[in-house]
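Most newcomers find our protein records easier to grasp once they have seen one. The structure tokens are whole numbers drawn from a learned vocabulary of backbone shapes. The record below serves as our worked example for the rest of this section.
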Amino acid sequence: MRNNFQDLLKSKPRNLNSVQNAPDDVNLDIIGNEFTKIRVISPNDSRLNLKEWIQNNTDFVNSLFEKDRILLFKGFKGFSQKTDLSEVVDLTSKGTALTYTEPSTPRTKVNDQIYTSTEYPKEQRIAQHNEHSYSDFWPKKVFFYCEKPSRIGGHTPIADSRSVYQLIPQEITKKFESRGGVMYVRNFSDEMDINWPTFFDTTDKSKVEEYCKKKNIKLQWGEDNKLRIFQISQAILHDKEKNVKNWFNQAHLFHYSNLSEEISEYLIQTYGVEHLPRNTYYADGSEIEVDDLNEIRKAYEKAMFRFDWEEGDLVVIDNVHFTHGRDSYDGDRSILVAMSEEDSIENYLEKNQENNTRDAKAAPTTKSVNTTRKNTGEFFFKDPVFENSTEMLKYKLALSCRLLRLLDLDEGSISGHVSMRVPGAENLFWVNPFGVLFEHVTPDNLILVNESGDIIEGDYPINVAGFCIHSTIHKMYPEVNCVVHTHSPWGTLFSAFQDPKVLPIDQNSCMFFENHIVFDQFEGPVNSLESADNLAKALNGNNVAILSNHGSITCGEDIETALMYTVCLERAMRLNFKAKSFKDELKLVEPEIARKTKEWISNPLGFKIEFDALAKKAEQFYPDLLKYYPKNK
């Protein structure tokens, strides 16, 4: 749930100035939920300079941090230069800012150990985590400074690690404790994720081996300059002073289940579990159950609290007691990060605790990978044709409309519709304009609507049926980012059968095995939210719905997936229609083989590759579209 800072202030929290003996020129408040509390310091006068105020009140700031372990400075006049953050770190820390070593994700060093926040695609969310908790050392303090907040989304959710531990079912926390913690397995290459010279900050293999020996990291060198490491770290930190336990690891984030199901299945099939860029196990080498990791994710979700970033905001967190993450966003966003006060597992071990619990166990067994499949994946992940900036997503949406016309997947009329959820926005999506043929859709004439049907941007009205269907599906299934609805020639004809179910008669048709429903409640155009709700419920998580006497709907996590399901569905319905007359003589694909075939061919990588190929065809046929291509994105 998104929390609004102004709304929280209106609740008139208890004034704590007298309790904390705060300076007269600021107010102290607490925001949060029942699991996570954040101390807020705000000035009486917005002209009050943040750096100067901290310089003049360092003792107060440090004592308040010792008590609350998290401080949010909000409403001050921000830093005039990036080095101001370095000075504040020095003032409020025991020592200077730390260097970002053993990186998990890419960051850019800005100045004096000041870094950008994780450089990860803006449309993706970063799961909650304690910084560097995959290692045996980490920063005790982490500083986040907002240079520029994003237009939509981009929050930095905070969660109390102590609450997270309490919210995780006890039988799960006991598993991690009894099995010695978490083993992180990383496969470094030049194709995906960061490479080992970046991680170890050296190209000298002997130095890497020396470092790993010092840190109890097991390593295996492979061909083509590849490296695999096995690193065992804690799952839980026990704060002996307060006698509380903190959930402190990144098992859920490194595990392959943190990826979408389609992506993870493809990577496993292509590379094998042992060769994934990153993965996690229990410290004894046994697999962590995905259901347990999902329970951990639920605990984070329940504990986390969001505040709205404003320019000049600074939050300082105790990295052991609090986690952070990042919501997806739209627009420009600049958050600077600094870390200080190195902490380590040695400060949390009992004196008689044996060190060998941190020794890496035997590596998982390796297996061969098909070279051709491997090279295909590497090519795609290293050099994707389409990025996912806002401009590119709108371009792909317009291009998809052109493809539907080019491939004769519409009626040549104005009835079909395609929608795409706006990254970082909960209730907004783009849709093709009503009254415009697919062949005339451009990124500029797309309309932006909310789930209530209000037009936010655009010069055209909405298609009522399109709004009802798409908004309901988007709302009911948050993982669905794109929806395509058409009245294609073969699809419409096939939908008129008594039982228009796609049978697994060939490889392409297997794509829809146990992945489509037939919605036989035809009541004319879907012009009411009630009818749309019935349709969305019937969809029940499947990617495809065949609408009796009407057409089809396809859904996906991205434009490529939804559009390619439409293309492949038309092929399948054409063959199924023709095969109806030979039904008694048909040999259907066996269910188990159909399932395996579906898993193999209906993956996001395959969809993206074919989409890119069809995109070139559309751009050749509609050269006017190329002027909208965001070349510099």
Remarks:
- The first strand starts at residue 26 and ends at 32.
- Confidence is low (pLDDT under 50) at residues 1-19, 351-385.
